[in-house]
Request: fold
Amino acid sequence: MRRSLLVLTFLLLVLGASQLSLPVDVAHAQSGSYESSPAPDPDGGPLDGTIEIALIGDINTVVTRQLAITNTGATPLNITGYLPATGYTLAEVGAQDPLTIEVGNPIVVAPGGNRTLEIRCTPTELTGNPANAQLRIFHSDTVVPPNPAGEARYDLSCSGRSPNYNDGSPDPMTYFNFSNVPVGAVSVPINLNISNPNTGTAQYSTTLPLEGTVSIGPGNQNAFVFSDDPDGSKTRNFSLSEGGFQSFPVACRPGAAGNNFATLTVTHNAKLGPPSPRVYELSCNGTVPIFNSSVTVSGAPNPTGIVGIPSGTTNPPPLLIGATTNNSRPIAITNTGDATLSISVTTPPSTPFSYVVVPTFAPLNNIPPGDEARIRITCSPTQFGLQTSTLVLDTNDNTNADTVTYTLNCIGAAPTYVPVTPSTTGATVTITPSVLVGNTSAPGTITFGNATDEPLDLSNPVLGGTNPSEFAVTTAFPIEDVTATGGNAIIEFTCTPTAPGTRSATLTFNTNDPALPSVNYTLQCTGIQPGFSSVPAPNSTFNFGNVQVGSASNQPLELRNSGGAALNITNITITPGGGAFRIAGGNPGSVTIAAPISPATVRPRRSRCVANRLWSGRSMAR
Reply:
């Protein structure tokens, strides 16, 4: 009803104006003049695609645009109502609630005055929200705009702004497959790259930061880490300004043998790009190093003979830790087609692997039909155990082998020290028989071997313990290049005891066996020496008592050996000579008394003796 009255009023005013031929400013003087900034749609008709009022703001954030209405006429201008488009509101500046306008309760703008209102929108999309919207304001100016009378129309557009999300590497929803990784080792990382690219469209401005998190888990969460901080948090936060880029290196560190699976989840605030969250699958197989494995180069099955599998054996000997070896493995590539085969290395192997293109064969990027190219792989391991890498080739054989991947495995092998005699390290090695004090023994021996054909080296022998100065290592050190094929090796040592009894020392030396870098043994020998004693004891007095002249009286003297070695007695004399005292049976000059019992079975206080009788008058041998 109110709309009809407005239209009727408008028609009457137009008709009256034409009959009276009133100037425009006179009509305005009767009705008030409506002007606004921004101006309404110029033709007042259907939307012609011109955006008169565009609101651009962050998604889900209220954005506003002011509409200034001015009365340039001489009479009051009444704003009697409005129709906002869906998703938009018209309100007083600073007010919370939408504006309420009725015919009986208009907004009155005095002549020469103005009124500022606010158009509000909360964008929920990046495109126009809603599309092709229109705001209609009804007023008492029946002259401007002329069609429709008493109405101003504004085309509206409300667009949301958002950061942009791009995860171009790796491809979305792909596996992070780390293949075989030794238990406890950190694999070569795979990078998750996230960027906030500039779209080049002002309407969808990316000046807003791209924010979110990258999280490892759930699943076997502990088997996967960020390789730049493997013991840190499983969650990383990021904030990227327009054009920003960040890389997250994800790696596998298995704690046990077997397969491990988890997820990598990215949450973000972008409305451009793929929706949040983004989920990637993580997988790797924990392996235990196999010490008798060897370098292997294996690849995909031969794709119709276009790109060949590696030639030669797949189980060469292990490579020594730290060695710069020429024991490399070739990959032979043959072109069995009828056009030139072109190959490029898209992913070279990582350390400790290296590769060269053998120049005596065809160039890798230009292999004629029927010809062959060759890549030689070399491994120079610097640590013990399994090390892996990949070699990825790209070819122009798009039908059979567009991309070929070779898996490279290398074992860092090592020599293994094997005690033979004695059969355990740390054991006691005894020199037999016993050694006379001050004399040097015959050599004692330690026999050892090597369980592998990797050269075993021994160095830096050190004697310690109780009597180190009484032992000497007579085998020259360093001992080098002991291998399983070369048989066992011997270390010789001697003992020169300085006192009787058990003498001991410890022998320690180093090896290049990483599992046994230091080896020790206890060396032992027994020192022996003679022990002189007599009955009666030395410095005793022989008392012959009263002896009749011309008669003889005998007194025995027993010379004994109480030690562990033969006793030599020399120069037995009675001084002064030629008197009444004689050695019965004549002077023997010297006597040797053997040790009473072998050192292994000696019984205390048991000895042998040589008995002589001393007499005065004439000699009697006994």
